[in-house]
Amino acid sequence: MKESERQLKEFGIRPTAMRILVHQFMSGQTSAVSLSAVEDNFEKSDRTTLYRTLKTFEEKCMVHQIDDGTGIPKYALCNHDRDEGKHADLHLHFHCTECNQTICLTEHRIPTIHLPDGFVPEDINMLVKGICDNCNH
Amino acid sequence: MKESERQLKEFGIRPTAMRILVHQFMSGQTSAVSLSAVEDNFEKSDRTTLYRTLKTFEEKCMVHQIDDGTGIPKYALCNHDRDEGKHADLHLHFHCTECNQTICLTEHRIPTIHLPDGFVPEDINMLVKGICDNCNH
DNA sequence: CATTAAATGCACTGCCATTGCACGTACATA
DNA sequence: TATGTACGTGCAATGGCAGTGCATTTAATG
Questions:
Q1: Which nucleotide is nearest to A34 (CA to C1')?
Q2: Do A128 and B127 touch (CB under 8 A)?
Q3: What is the pLDDT of residue B31?
Q4: Would you list the DSSP string of B37-64?
Q5: In the 18-77 stretch of chain A, whose C-beta falls under 7 Å of nucleic acid strand D?
Q6: Interface contact flag, A118 B125, Cβ < 8 Å
Q7: What are the sequence ranges of the domains in chain B?
Q8: Rounded distance between C-alpha atoms, residue A105 and residue A91, angstroms
Q9: Share of chain B above pLDDT 90, in %
Q10: Does residue A84 surpass a pLDDT of 70?
């Protein structure tokens, strides 16, 4: 896909074959993916490469890392439609304890929080665990 | 302290010497502690014992586990003053990226969230990262 | 084509949660 | 007091997964 290549360039990432494939893969996902998941999808490639690929994507703010409480970091493409600046991941994340999938609820902004005096917030992470729509039927 | 012993019994935990000590230790903490932190404080005892001690405390709902994004689980005594039922940890957690401490902001309840249709919430985790009061001076 | 930087693959380290097993200790019951 | 049983503790080992160092390959540039 030329589209993936274009996107990569847009974020200042050199569009290598591997990176294009990984981007395509992530574009096709409805939920966040773990490194292992990517690994399983590209058995030909090395774990380290994929690891660093995701890191690069993250540094360039093309994907954001999600901590869904499983201890295994997940990654998802950022949604830059709405201009969220550097904090492109300031939305709600939902982790389904049934199917073990983690999805971004980009519609649901994290409500503003008032902290005690002297506390300066820099990043906010909000995670809801439960049963997702799919598993509820 | 007889107090720690009393508390343990109250939660249905047999008050062994080790458990009493761990409880006392946690009572004296202002921030959440990791297993390693407890370990460092009780060099005489075994890591496994402390690990299982914390697990037991958690199962009996005397402490709650906190995921502060560091990948290392932290534990803190639950605040049962306000009756939160099983969800005694439904408050905000703050992780200071400077001193690396994680504290419970029990005053700050997590705001109610409206999820899309079909999504059933069971647990909510909200974490703010930033600079704490202490490190700000 | 030559030079240089970046990307990739391999081997390895290391942290830390978690588990299996054996031994010790408290508690209940006769 | 003896004895059995469940629970607590300690040791050793496993295993998952993040992260790193280094050598090799690939791509970009003049």
A1: D17
A2: no
A3: 92
A4: HHHHH-TTS-HHHHHHHHHHHHHTTSEE
A5: 34-36, 47-48, 51-52, 72-73
A6: no
A7: 2-136
A8: 6
A9: 50
A10: no
